[in-house]
């Protein structure tokens, strides 16, 4: 039997609970790619190869995605994503699956463990750097995705959309240190505490002002809880240093969860194709002696291992759903072309003041309408105003039309080539706010962009002989700036 194959031969009808726990234990403790054989309680052998760290699927929670999820217009199966977490509901009714009470108790235990793990990891890092130097990036994007979803391909687009210049943090790179490799070689798991500790060290090495992207975290229930605790700890640091000279180094944290999704079949086909292309490239390099050899992933050459990776992603996805109720959750359709996926990413990560401004600042200015929203109903309001004045206040409407005919239209005709006309008038009807509103509405309906300015000119007329006060005469001058499409005249070219 090839060592790269993953064969799970367990009985589904007898001793399911024990078999399920043994399966999880093997996947958590086995070394890849060495094949392990664990005795089953009913005499069946359980063979497995380790490809990735795995975590048991969590109880299904309601899925939340951002309203700007534009995947409906793309040809994809992204709507299958909620089913990734729904499998937990189906398993509840199967024999051998833990009851809701057992799952609840397990959940409480995981939360307690996460607090202990995080607090110890944070203390270890703080002892090295000092509490006043625990300055983490304000914005952190936590990127997860199905195998073959293009995380590496689309990471530059995400960084560009958010203006992030810090290099992305890859958890797989953080866990490839000599210390971590030594643990793996001894057949030991890298603890969640060590993972969190290494991650915080990497975050402290970043420039905190421009944010950072973390690829591959969180991947388990405990890590999800640690992420929540990390967000709370950053708020605690901000509150602690708020009234000190260091307050600018502890801004309000902004966490975003981003998941790139493709269905299982596309994931498999992409990884197989990637493995084939790398093999062909390396063969060409060996023949020609030009170029660099690329790393060949074992998981790109074995379909069963690829599907095992996707199953792990499904488990991780159900964990991530717990964060969708707390942080912005971006589910990106990664099935389409690179350009189409990039457009979705740029739309998802547009500037959002409610997420990035301090709460007090946002509350102070949020009542001011957005420029992008102000004109949505402007056309309907324009029509309503014109119909109202024409039907109920025909006198005002007539005065406005006559003013346009007599003073505005001639000036527009005179400056037709330039695309802009400045109309100055001392006509007293412009002191009436209603008439001005009708004039601007009529010109707007005809396609002109109009702004109006009122100025008061003071002219000395006489001097009071008793008080020697200079008596001024005030005149109101109204200026209408009318803009319209400019007409370009192509100059005649003389050819000799």
UniProtKB/TrEMBL annotation:
GO BP terms, alphabetized: nucleobase-containing compound metabolic process
What's the domain of life for this entry?
Eukaryota
InterPro entries in alphabetical order: Adenylat/UMP-CMP_kin, Adenylat_kinase_CS, P-loop_NTPase
Protein name per its UniProtKB record: Adenylate kinase
Organism, per UniProt? Dissophora globulifera
Any GO MF annotation of the entry:
nucleobase-containing compound kinase activity
Q: Which family does it belong to?
A: Belongs to the adenylate kinase family.
What keywords appear on the UniProt entry? Kinase, Nucleotide-binding, Transferase
What the entry lists under PROSITE patterns is as follows:
ADENYLATE_KINASE (PS00113)
Query: Does Transport show up as a keyword for this record?
Result: no
Pfam families, per database record: ADK
CDD domains noted in UniProt: ADK (cd01428)
């Amino acid at each position: 039997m090839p060592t790269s194959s993953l064969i799970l031969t367990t009985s589904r009808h007898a001793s399911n609970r024990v078999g399920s726990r043994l399966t999880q234990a093997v996947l958590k403790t086995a070394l890849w790619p060495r094949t392990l054989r664990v005795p089953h309680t009913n005499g069946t052998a359980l063979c497995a190869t380790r490809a990735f760290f795995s975590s048991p699927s969590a109880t299904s929670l309601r899925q939340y995605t951002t309203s700007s999820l534009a995947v409906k217009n793309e040809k994809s199966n992204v709507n299958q994503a909620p089913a990734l977490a729904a499998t937990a509901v189906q398993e509840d009714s199967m024999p051998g699956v833990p009851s809701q009470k057992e799952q609840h108790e397990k959940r409480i235990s995981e939360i307690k463990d996460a607090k202990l793990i995080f607090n110890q990891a944070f203390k270890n890092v703080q002892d090295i750097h000092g509490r006043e130097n625990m300055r983490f990036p304000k914005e952190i994007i936590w990127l997860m995705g199905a195998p073959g979803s293009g995380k590496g391909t689309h990471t530059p687009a995400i960084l560009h959309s958010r203006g992030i210049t810090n290099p992305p943090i890859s958890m797989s790179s953080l866990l490839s240190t000599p210390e971590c490799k030594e643990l793996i070689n001894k057949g030991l798991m890298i603890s969640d505490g060590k993972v969190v500790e290494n991650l915080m060290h990497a975050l402290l090495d970043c420039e905190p002002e421009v944010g950072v992207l973390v690829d591959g975290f969180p991947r388990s229930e405990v890590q999800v809880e640690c992420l929540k605790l990390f967000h709370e700890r950053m708020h605690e640091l901000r509150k602690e240093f708020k009234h000190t000279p260091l307050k600018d180094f502890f801004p309000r944290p902004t966490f975003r969860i981003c998941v790139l999704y493709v269905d299982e079949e596309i994931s498999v086909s992409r990884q197989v194709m990637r493995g084939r292309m790398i093999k062909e490239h390396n063969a060409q390099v060996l023949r020609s002696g030009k170029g660099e050899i690329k790393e060949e992933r074992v998981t790109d050459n074995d379909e069963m291992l690829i599907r095992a990776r996707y199953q792990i992603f499904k488990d991780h996805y159900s964990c991530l759903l717990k964060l969708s109720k707390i942080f912005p959750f971006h589910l990106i359709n990664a099935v389409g072309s690179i350009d189409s996926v990039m457009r979705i990413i740029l739309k998802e990560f547009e500037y959002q003041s409610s997420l990035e401004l301090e709460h007090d600042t946002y509350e102070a200015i949020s009542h001011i309408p957005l420029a992008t929203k102000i004109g949505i109903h402007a056309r309907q309001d324009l029509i309503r105003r014109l119909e109202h004045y024409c039907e109920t206040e025909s006198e005002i409407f007539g005065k406005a039309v006559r003013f346009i005919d007599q003073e505005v239209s001639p000036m527009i005709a005179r400056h037709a080539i330039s695309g802009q006309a400045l109309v100055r008038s001392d006509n007293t009807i412009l002191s009436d706010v209603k008439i001005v509103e009708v004039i601007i509405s009529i010109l707007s309906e005809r396609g002109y962009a109009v702004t109006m300015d009122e100025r008061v000119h003071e002219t000395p007329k006489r001097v009071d002989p008793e008080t020697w006060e200079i008596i001024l005469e005030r005149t109101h001058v109204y200026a209408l700036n009318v803009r319209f499409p400019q007409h370009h005249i192509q100059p005649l070219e003389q050819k000799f």
